[in-house]
């Protein structure tokens, strides 16, 4: 029996109930278990997992054991694959593998989580640390689903089943409390996910009918059982904070605690608010105990959170505790300096101000921090240099994905370099490796002082040593004027060391300093640097170039040869995102044909596997590029046609999509060009046009081209069938009868063909309409059957159609 039909039959059997049905389901589970231990082919194992998922809730004990056995087998199983033309096993294994099957089995266990919570939680926690990210995510999602509050599970059906109340959450808490200290460290992410759900203030429910699903949310009830569960979750988190071995984990624990301070988004009663305030008070008490020995970033988070607890506090106890936290933080002298120089989450306004923050508020904070940063910088002397050195190194060691965390710290270092240039250069000489990310602001400050020559000597030494080349190249992006001698030395050293980051930065520095006096550097440095990067398939410069105001002027000043060198570099991008498109737009304004050829070259290279297995030679759609490229419809079609190699199926999604991107709403010139190609009757041209039309979802403006195709194509041939497919294609459809309604619209669109003077067109239209009418009949029957099945499942006896 076909697996889909078997799945439908098992679904009905599972719904039937009764001893006889249960016996059959048990036998079927045994068959599935045997198959999962015998099969090696991915698709067959996948089929068995689908069958298991269908009946698992009726054979839940067996389902858990079957899954466990499969997990064990998958640790050593070498999968085989059904032969599919064009898809070798190596390719299939990228997305059909052992981990994919583990994920599917975890999904089945999630569906029966309330039947065997303890056993399934064991599995979820074990797989929450899996090396494969997707498997770990599925396991953590399973934990979340069991720890979250579901209205239907909590309250029952209101008839025969009273529901489970907070029993699932109790099971989760029991499981976590059973963990050893080692387990708590190991299952950190899963524990956090569980506590987040348990501390959520909302409870969700779903109501299904045969034609709709309604999702509802409300407040968790403030009954003693819920209060106890929340307090236990907070106790687990406080314990976990002590085990957290990294700064990020400690911050994660504090963020998880904050879930207990949230009130529901929908209406709630005073008892729910009182419960939330009680939990908030517990968290503030905990915060007081950790401030003294905490990392400054933790103190910052505590200040930020406590401030909002204070602002949202609905009783005096919470407000008083928040102010006690504030007093401890205000007395933390080192944090007060940190708050000025780093504190991106620090609170600078009075806590009792009731108005919301506005633009002036931010400006006052900015002015305050900039002024204090300047005062700190000016206050550094030889006597307190050691203390400031330690502080600066500590702040510089903070991990950040970008420099957005450090604007005031960078200003402070620049002021330091300007106010005490000798001490600043001493700091760089002593600690340059630790301060590599902050060399630029220090040197920028020194650059405007009498110590510039000493700074140059240090820079020259570093260049000779091949050190900090990226930072040194970037320094001249910010100085007033460009030291061309040093920049050329940096470039030469970067080339010698294959330091592509520094070479990219040389391009960006020249771009930032581009004016009439530096234009010669485009030929002397910019383009030579670009060629080196192209030779090494490196296009990193565009991410710092695309938004610059000098971008348009630089590109406009280049001739076609220069523009082509840029295209040669962009050729190696894995994907053409908005940054690259901004540059391509400027090129396309002068040389649109070069850009069309650029995309054709990427398509050809992908097929030849000449560009590292590129995943996206052309973007799914253009944001701005269509406008300049669409100005050459005839030439664009000819350029793309020249690249057509006869691979019709692939060309639909490559060259065809490229032209669809350029001409989303084809002009008359574009349509006429396609018609001319059809009239040549050349097979290559015919296939080329058909491939292009496949991308337009059968829109009516294709009809004139399709008529020409019908005239020249032989009756009964494959290519004429392609015309039918092109005309039938639709976009997204809605509702059970969506396809039937779409086919009816297609019939209305084609009816004018019945009055055409050409007999072939009229005959094609009649056959096309007859085919659609049959499809409409089939689709309506399928939709009716589907509705009947859903009515049976969800108990809706009405005969209303969707």
Can you give a write-up of this model?
By secondary structure, the chain is mainly alpha-helical. Helix content is 67%, strand content 2%. It contains 43 helices and two strands. The protein has a two-stranded antiparallel sheet. β1 (202-208) and β2 form a beta hairpin. α1 (3-16) runs antiparallel to α2 (19-38) and α22 (421-431) packs antiparallel against α23 (439-447). The longest helix has 36 residues, at 759-794. The radius of gyration is 34 Å and the shape is flat. The model has no long low-confidence stretch (mean pLDDT 91).
What fraction of the residues are assigned to beta strands by DSSP? under 5%
User: What Rg do the Cα atoms give?
Assistant: 34 Å
- Structural class by sheet pairing and helices: mainly alpha
Q: Roughly what is the average pLDDT, rounded to an integer?
A: 91
Strand order of the largest sheet: 1-2
The DSSP helix count reads 43
Biggest sheet record:
2 strands, antiparallel
Shape verdict: flat
Low-pLDDT stretches are: none
- Per DSSP E runs of 2 or more residues, the count of β-strands stands at 2
Q: For the terminal residues, how far apart are their CA atoms?
A: 31 Å
The percent range for helix content is 55-70%
């Amino acid at each position: 029996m076909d697996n889909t039909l078997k799945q439908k039959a098992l679904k009905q059997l599972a719904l039937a109930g009764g001893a006889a049905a249960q016996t059959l389901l048990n036998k079927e589970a045994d068959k599935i278990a045997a198959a999962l231990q015998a099969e090696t082919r991915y698709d067959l194992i996948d089929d068995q997992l689908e069958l298991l998922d269908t009946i698992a809730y009726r054979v839940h004990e067996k389902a858990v054991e079957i899954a466990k056995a499969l997990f064990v087998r998958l640790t050593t199983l070498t999968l085989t694959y059904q032969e599919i033309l064009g898809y070798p096993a190596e390719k299939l294994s990228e997305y059909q593998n052992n981990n994919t099957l583990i994920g599917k089995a975890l999904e089945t266990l999630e569906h029966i989580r309330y039947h065997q919570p303890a056993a399934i939680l064991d599995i979820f926690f074990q797989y929450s640390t899996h090396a494969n990210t997707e498997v770990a995510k599925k396991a953590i999602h399973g934990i979340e689903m069991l720890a979250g509050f579901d209205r239907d599970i909590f309250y029952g059906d209101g008839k025969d089943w009273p529901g489970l109340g907070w029993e699932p959450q109790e099971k989760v808490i029991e499981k976590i409390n059973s963990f050893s200290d080692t387990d708590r460290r190991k299952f950190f992410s899963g524990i956090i996910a569980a506590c987040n759900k348990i501390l959520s203030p909302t409870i969700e429910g779903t109501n299904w009918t045969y034609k709709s699903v309604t999702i509802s949310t409300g407040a968790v009830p403030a009954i003693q059982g819920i209060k106890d569960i929340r307090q236990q979750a907070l106790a687990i988190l406080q314990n976990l904070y002590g085990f957290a071995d990294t700064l990020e984990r400690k911050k994660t624990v504090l963020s998880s605690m904050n879930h207990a301070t949230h009130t529901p988004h929908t209406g709630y009663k005073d008892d729910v608010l009182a419960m939330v305030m009680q939990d908030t008070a517990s968290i503030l008490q905990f915060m007081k105990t950790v401030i003294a020995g905490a990392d400054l970033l933790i103190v910052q988070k505590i200040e930020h959170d406590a401030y909002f607890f204070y602002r949202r506090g609905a009783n005096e106890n919470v407000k008083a505790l928040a102010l006690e936290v504030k007093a401890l933080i205000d007395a933390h002298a080192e944090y007060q300096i940190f708050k000025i120089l780093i504190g991106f989450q620090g609170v600078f306004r009075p806590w009792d101000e009731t108005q919301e923050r506005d633009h002036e508020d931010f400006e006052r904070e900015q002015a305050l921090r900039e002024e204090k940063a300047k005062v700190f910088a000016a206050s550094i002397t030889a006597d307190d240099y050691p203390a400031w050195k330690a502080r600066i190194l500590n702040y510089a060691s903070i991990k950040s994905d970008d420099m957005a965390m450090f604007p005031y710290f960078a200003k402070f270092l620049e002021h330091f370099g300007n106010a005490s240039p000798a001490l600043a250069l001493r700091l760089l000489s002593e600690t340059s490796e630790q301060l590599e990310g902050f060399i630029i602001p220090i040197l920028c400050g020194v650059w405007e002082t009498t110590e510039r020559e000493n700074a140059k000597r240090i820079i020259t030494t570093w260049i000779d040593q091949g050190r900090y080349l990226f930072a040194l190249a970037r320094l001249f992006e910010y100085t007033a004027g460009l030291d061309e001698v040093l920049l050329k030395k940096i470039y030469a050293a970067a080339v010698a060391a294959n330091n592509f980051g520094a070479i990219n930065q040389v391009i960006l520095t020249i771009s930032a300093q581009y004016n009439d006096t530096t234009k010669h550097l485009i030929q002397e440095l910019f383009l030579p640097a670009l060629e080196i990067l192209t030779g090494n398939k490196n296009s990193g410069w565009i991410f710092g170039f695309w938004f610059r105001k000098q971008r348009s002027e630089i590109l406009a000043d280049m001739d076609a040869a220069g523009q082509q060198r840029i295209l040669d570099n962009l050729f190696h991008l894995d994907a053409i995102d908005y940054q690259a498109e901004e540059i391509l737009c400027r090129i396309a304004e002068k040389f649109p044909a070069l850009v069309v050829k650029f995309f054709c070259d990427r398509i050809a290279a992908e097929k030849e596997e000449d560009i590292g297995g590129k995943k996206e030679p052309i973007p799914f759609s253009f944001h701005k590029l269509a406008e300049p490229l669409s100005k050459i419809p005839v030439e664009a079609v000819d350029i793309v046609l020249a690249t057509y190699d006869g691979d019709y199926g692939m060309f639909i999604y490559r060259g065809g999509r490229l032209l669809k991107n350029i001409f989303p709403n084809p002009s008359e010139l574009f349509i006429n060009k396609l018609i001319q190609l059809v009239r040549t009757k050349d097979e290559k041209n015919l296939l080329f046009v058909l491939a292009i039309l496949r991308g337009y979802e059968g829109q009516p403006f294709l009809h004139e081209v399709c008529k020409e195709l019908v005239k020249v194509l032989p009756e009964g041939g494959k290519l004429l069938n392609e015309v039918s497919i092109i005309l039938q294609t639709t976009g997204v459809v809605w509702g059970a009868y969506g396809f039937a309604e779409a086919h009816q619209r297609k019939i209305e669109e084609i009816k004018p063909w019945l009055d055409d003077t050409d007999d072939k067109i009229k005959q094609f239209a009649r056959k096309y309409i007859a085919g659609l009418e049959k499809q409409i009949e089939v689709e309506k029957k399928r939709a009716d059957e589907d509705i009947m099945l859903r009515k049976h499942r969800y108990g809706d006896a009405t005969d209303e159609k969707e």
